[in-house]
Amino acid sequence: MDSLSSTLARAIVSSRAEDLNEATLVEARRALVNYLGCALGGAGHPAMDIALRALGQFSGPKNAAVLGRREETDMSLAAFLNGISSHVHDYDDTTPSNYIHPTSPVASALFAYASVRPVSGRDFIHAFVLGFDTVTRIGDATYPAHYKVGWHSTGSIGIFGAAVAIGRLLGLDEKGMLWALGLAATQSSGIRDNFGSMAKAFHPGDAARGGLQAAFLAREGFTTGTTPLEGPRGFAAVTAGGQFDHTGFLDRLGTHFRFEGNTYKPYPCGIVIHPTIELCSSIHAEGVDPARIADVECRVAPLVRDLCDQRPDSGLQGKFSIYHAAAIGLVRGRGGLDEFTDEAVADPELSSMRGKVRATPDPSIGEDAVKVIVRLDDGQEIERFLEGSLGNLRCPLSDAQLAEKFLGQTQGIAGADIHALLARCWRIDDEQDVGDLARSAR
Q: Are strands 381-386 and 357-361 parallel, antiparallel or unpaired?
């Protein structure tokens, strides 16, 4: 009987671009539009400057484009940097079934590769679909065990998608693809203790770089074990206590691609505090004076406290603070990029409001819901409940909203025709050479 890992490898190498249905292509394009906006929007972050200063000296031939930057590096470092920029604002897509940001590690490797070697839009999007689906399937099969013990799955599982996508473009056969998966498994990394720091964005960057290198090593015959996912000392056994849902993983493998479970963020922060921002912003819109607020109770799913219990000292920490989420909603009535800067976290009015916020774990509250009780200085109580926030699976961002988000992040980039770039990204599978698109995004 074939191993599960071999079955996956066979499905990947036997897949044909012409078999992708239009619904899959539509969602893949949406994911790539969202990704490119995030990568360009994060390209000027200090984390990128630091990474280039530290690692640029180790770069090989400087022939690869880094999205949103003037500098060129080698392909491997470009993949790493693309991963940082696309995730540093925590604005990239998320699959709530496993809390992975699946596009960042896969697309970061693909754009770096395509900036050096010619890749048609058709082949690019096909490789992306295969990588995205691999990440989502492994994530679903090992959730919650893998995530619960502290792995940041965007890095630790995203590397498989990057390896698959690049391996597909390199034309790996089944054995080579199995080795690429094995090399991805042995490099798997990323811990949740890094949430609220630059190191969180390191994870998809490292996954993109590691997956790309895994595929190139496999092409040259660098061998691995044959059961990297399900073996007794393989990925699931080592990182998920042996949990791996074989049946769910294999369901419609090679014929169905799991984009229907993807979501796009309206706020640049942890997805589980989106409902709090939205509901508190609506309370602000009712005309409630922040100066009169004496106490705020947020009743949230237990996962919210697990992920976003930080009392922030920086903008990056604010992205994982239920207290900051409530404060920006109640005080400013919004949750844009400007609400997650160091300056915003230091704002005395927001700091004071954060001190009034309590977060109570409530198992009856869904992970995309929140109940907020605001108590005013005269004893009056305002109680509101939100069952699902904008951007969730039941209320997805429209194409127009994705375009608005893209433009909002990229308008300040000098020397780039942002509207033309957006239009090309919506039609990426029509590109003769995606490398030209990647270079246009510098």
A: unpaired
Predicted model pTM: 0.97
Question: Hey, what are 342's tokens?
Answer: 């160091």
pLDDT in tens, 73-124: 999 999 999 999 999 999 999 999 999 999 999 999 999 999 999 999 999 9
Q: Using an 8 Å Cβ cutoff, are 372 and 365 in contact?
A: no
Dist. CA 323–CA 309, nearest whole Å? 8
Give the rounded distance of the alpha carbon of 256 from its chain centre.
21
Give the DSSP per-residue string, 226-283.
Answer: S-TTTSTTSHHHHHSTT---HHHHHTTTTT---GGG-B--SSSS-GGGHHHHHHHHHH
pLDDT of residue 290: 98
Q: Which residues of the chain have pLDDT under 50?
A: none
Q: What are phi and psi of 146, to 5 degrees?
A: -65, -45
SS3 172: coil
Run of H or E including 422: helix 418-426
* Exposure letters 81-100 (e unless 16+ CB within 10 A, then b): bbbbbbbbbbbbbbbeebbb
Q: With the CA atoms of 423, 425, 427 and 432 taken in that order, what torsion angle do they form, in degrees rounded to the nearest 10?
A: 110
Per-domain residue ranges of the chain: 4-264+396-440, 271-386
pLDDT tens digit sequence for 373-400:
999 999 999 999 999 999 999 999 999 9
Instruction: Check if the beta carbon of residue 56 is closer than 8 Å to that of residue 73.
Output: yes
Contact 87, 204 (CB under 8 A): yes
Topology (CATH) of 271-386: 60s Ribosomal Protein L30; Chain: A; (3.30.1330)
CATH number of 4-264+396-440: 1.10.4100.10
